[in-house]
Amino acid sequence: MTITGRSTSGRMRLDRPTGHPKRREARRQRVLTHGVPSITEGIADALVVKDLGLFFLCNGKGQVPLGGSHGFGLYYRDCRYVSGFEVDVAGGGFDPLVATVTDKGALIELANRELAAGSETIPKETIILEWTRRVDGSLLRLDDRLAFHNFRDAPSVLPVSVRLIAAFDDI
User: Fold this and answer.
1) How many CB atoms lie under 10 A from the CB of residue 42?
2) Mind listing the pLDDT tens digit for each residue in 18-35?
3) 105-112 and 94-102: which strand pairing?
């Protein structure tokens, strides 16, 4: 099968494919039924924050997974600059309470699962993480603010780690 084209005033015009109709149909079936499916994790439920040409996609917990094949990250024009961004608190998990997208930003609130911090156990849903994310397309910047709210009678000391993968993935 061949596709021919002609340039007309700087524009390319593609002619219809040539070749025998049975060969075209056989190729069409082969491509449609024997191709390798995409292995990319879906982003249908992603939180999307955008300003001008800069946009950021994360999951409902505010994370951009460090591994795997996914479409989350920080994008500018046709390139992904951040392909992994995870925050870990005391090695435990936080469950989403609410996620709201605002103008140029998102607010994600998470509640802790039961956590072991040193010799003490912190009961679930006593530490609330308020994660604010904003993008600024004019400065090409992603700003994150993490605020922890302790609803216990005693103070809590928790280790927090941030892991980031910066990669320049051309789209």
Assistant:
1) 9
2) 567 787 777 677 656 665
3) antiparallel
Query: 């995409």: which residue's tokens?
Result: 38
Kindly state the tokens that stand for 28.
């069409």
Half-sphere exposure of 169 (CA within 13 A, CB side): 16
Looking at residue 151, its amino acid is: F
Residue positions counted in the chain:
171
The Cα-based distances of 40 to 54, 69, 70, 72, 86 in angstroms read 22, 5, 5, 10, 19
Global pTM value: 0.71
> Within 13 A of 132's CA, how many CA atoms are on the CB side?
8
CA–CA separation, 82 vs 77, rounded Å?
13
Query: Tokens 């603010």 identify what position?
Result: 145
Tell me the pLDDT tens digit for each residue of 111-149.
999 988 778 889 999 999 999 999 999 999 999 999 999
Determine the Cα–Cα distance for residues 101 and 1; give it in Å rounded to an integer: 48
Instruction: Provide DSSP, 117-169.
Output: ETTEEEPTTSEEEEEEEEEETTTTEEEEEEEEEE-SSS-----EEEEEEEEEE
Give every strand in the sheet of 160-170, ordered side by side. Answer: 47-51, 54-58, 73-76, 79-89, 160-170
